[in-house]
Every structure is written in structure tokens, then in C-alpha cells.
TrEMBL record:
<dbReference type="GO" id="GO:0006281">
    <property type="term" value="P:DNA repair"/>
</dbReference>
<comment type="similarity">
    <text>Belongs to the CENP-X/MHF2 family.</text>
</comment>
<dbReference type="GO" id="GO:0000712">
    <property type="term" value="P:resolution of meiotic recombination intermediates"/>
</dbReference>
<protein>
    <recommendedName>
        <fullName>Centromere protein X</fullName>
    </recommendedName>
</protein>
<dbReference type="GO" id="GO:0003677">
    <property type="term" value="F:DNA binding"/>
</dbReference>
<comment type="subunit">
    <text>Heterodimer with CENPX, sometimes called MHF; this interaction stabilizes both partners. MHF heterodimers can assemble to form tetrameric structures. MHF also coassemble with CENPT-CENPW heterodimers at centromeres to form the tetrameric CENP-T-W-S-X complex. Forms a discrete complex with FANCM and CENPX, called FANCM-MHF; this interaction, probably mediated by direct binding between CENPS and FANCM, leads to synergistic activation of double-stranded DNA binding and strongly stimulates FANCM-mediated DNA remodeling.</text>
</comment>
<dbReference type="GO" id="GO:0071821">
    <property type="term" value="C:FANCM-MHF complex"/>
</dbReference>
<dbReference type="Pfam" id="PF09415">
    <property type="entry name" value="CENP-X"/>
</dbReference>
<keyword id="KW-0227">DNA damage</keyword>
<dbReference type="GO" id="GO:0051382">
    <property type="term" value="P:kinetochore assembly"/>
</dbReference>
<dbReference type="GO" id="GO:0031297">
    <property type="term" value="P:replication fork processing"/>
</dbReference>
<keyword id="KW-0238">DNA-binding</keyword>
<dbReference type="InterPro" id="IPR009072">
    <property type="entry name" value="Histone-fold"/>
</dbReference>
<keyword id="KW-0539">Nucleus</keyword>
<keyword id="KW-0234">DNA repair</keyword>
<dbReference type="InterPro" id="IPR018552">
    <property type="entry name" value="CENP-X"/>
</dbReference>
<dbReference type="GO" id="GO:0043240">
    <property type="term" value="C:Fanconi anaemia nuclear complex"/>
</dbReference>
Length: 97
């Protein structure tokens, strides 16, 4: 049995995410530092455009993980998303990206 209050709450959360889409994201500097830390050679450089592209990819990845986790929770008639829901969607999410 689904909880109508929980359904409204979940759909309201998705609407809020869409409204705040422009303000949520990863900082270019943070992404640059994370990527640069994995470079093997010191002379390897990362362009500003590449860092922006990677930040956008990370943003889309996180949003997709949130939506899929939410749908998984709804399919199990849960009122909130737990780590177990994320763990269930993760293998397919990684294959899709």
C-alpha cells in the first residue's frame, strides 16, 4: 500500500531538484584538483573546458542516481530513499555511463 503523503513528498522533491538545477553542481576547481590528483606525470595538464565538461558529467550522474534511487524506493513502497536503494541501482547506472 502506498502512502499518498509520501508520494506527494517524493514528487515535490523532484520538482525542487528541477527548480534548483541551475544552482547545484560541482565547482570547476574541485573537479580539476580531483582529476589532477590521479595524473601519473606532473606535466599532464587539464584544460578549463575539460574540467567544465567533467563537472557537468558528474552533475548528470548524481542526478540520475538520485532519480533512479527514488524510483527504486517507490517500487518497494518505501517512504524514503535508503542506501540499499542506491546499491540496487548502482550496477546498471555504471553500465549506462
Amino acid at each position: 500500500m502506498t502512502n499518498p503523503y509520501a508520494e506527494r513528498q517524493i514528487s515535490h522533491s523532484v520538482e525542487n531538484m528541477a527548480e534548483k538545477d541551475a544552482e547545484i553542481g560541482f565547482k570547476k576547481e574541485t573537479v580539476s584538483k580531483l582529476l589532477s590528483s590521479s595524473f601519473k606525470e606532473d606535466k599532464t595538464r587539464l584544460s578549463g573546458d575539460a574540467a567544465l565538461l567533467m563537472a557537468e558529467l558528474l552533475k548528470v550522474f548524481v542526478q540520475e542516481a538520485a532519480v533512479r534511487s527514488q524510483k527504486q524506493a517507490e517500487s518497494e513502497d518505501c517512504d524514503q530513499v535508503d542506501i540499499e536503494h542506491f546499491e540496487k541501482i548502482l550496477p546498471q547506472l555504471l553500465l549506462d555511463f
